[in-house]
Design a protein that fits this description.
two-stranded parallel ribbon, alpha/beta, 261 residues, single chain
């Protein structure tokens, strides 16, 4: 859960840096805590019962291959049904395990009624893994389907299609480990316990403070976060330039076992 960074906030407010009502936030944690919160898809071919590569001789038809992506892979009915019908962009975050901080992230785009994997890469999630009942400070990322409405960061807008708020107030404090200083250079707010249409670090928590908040996609520091999902700067720039509000993007995130439920 992110809370105001009092002294710094006051200085920034006096300097006219922070817009009214927006508190300094850092992904999923109290600021007194130290830790902050691709490649193209390639097919290896289908193996038949004898171990032969049946795709080599065209046995697996184009129609069959297309049918594989009538839904997001490895996502069960529970979460598949939560993807809005008008969504044509899905960021899927596949956690390695319930207690793992490692994830594989993929962007899927929809054309007609067929999904295509545009790109995939490695990343991190909460340092203690995942939960279906996220609480402030549990160091686990929430499992679920969430819309993606707003972006921002310390750095200037790289060409984001989502509304982008550049503000120094979002910067990680420099009493954190140096490896974390650039975590929030770019962020995309995950619409978990937040108000859509506000800057990512807006402190409003509709479900209450105990349910945590400021869960973001942000830049990676090489290990688990407090609740967010992190990836390289290049992949953050890619998402910012690709996620389009007209396509109603969402993130589907969780450990692989829960996502298949």
């Amino acid at each position: 859960m992110c809370v105001p960074w009092g002294a710094t906030m006051e200085r920034m407010r006096n300097a006219g840096v922070v817009r009214t009502g927006v508190a300094v936030a850092a992904c999923g944690v109290l600021l007194t805590s130290l830790a902050a919160c691709g490649d193209d898809d390639g097919s290896s071919g289908h193996k038949d019962s004898a171990g032969a590569d049946s795709s080599a001789d065209g046995a697996r038809s184009d129609e069959a291959r297309a049918a594989d992506l009538k839904r997001i892979p490895e996502i069960g009915d529970r979460y598949q049904k939560q993807i809005p019908a008008n969504s044509r962009q899905v960021v899927a975050v596949y956690g390695d395990g319930k207690d793992s901080a490692d994830s594989t992230i993929a962007l899927y785009t929809k054309s007609g009624d067929t999904w295509k994997k545009a790109r995939s890469w490695s990343g991190h999630n909460g340092k203690k893994g995942w939960t279906t009942d996220h609480q402030e400070g549990d160091n686990r990322s929430p499992v679920g389907v969430f819309t993606l409405s707003d972006a921002g960061g310390v750095l200037s807008d790289p060409g984001a299609k989502l509304p982008y708020t550049q503000t120094a107030s979002i910067q990680a404090p420099h009493y954190w480990a140096k490896s974390h200083w650039h975590d929030f250079d770019y962020v995309v707010a995950i619409d978990y316990n937040r108000v859509k249409g506000t800057a990512p670090n807006d402190p409003t928590r509709p479900q209450g403070q105990s349910k945590g908040g400021s869960i973001w996609l942000h830049m990676d520091h090489g290990s688990g976060t407090s609740a967010c999902v992190s990836q390289s700067k290049a992949n953050m720039e890619y998402l910012l330039k690709t996620l389009d509000p007209a396509q109603h993007p969402v993130v589907v995130m969780g450990d692989k076992a829960d996502l298949k439920a």
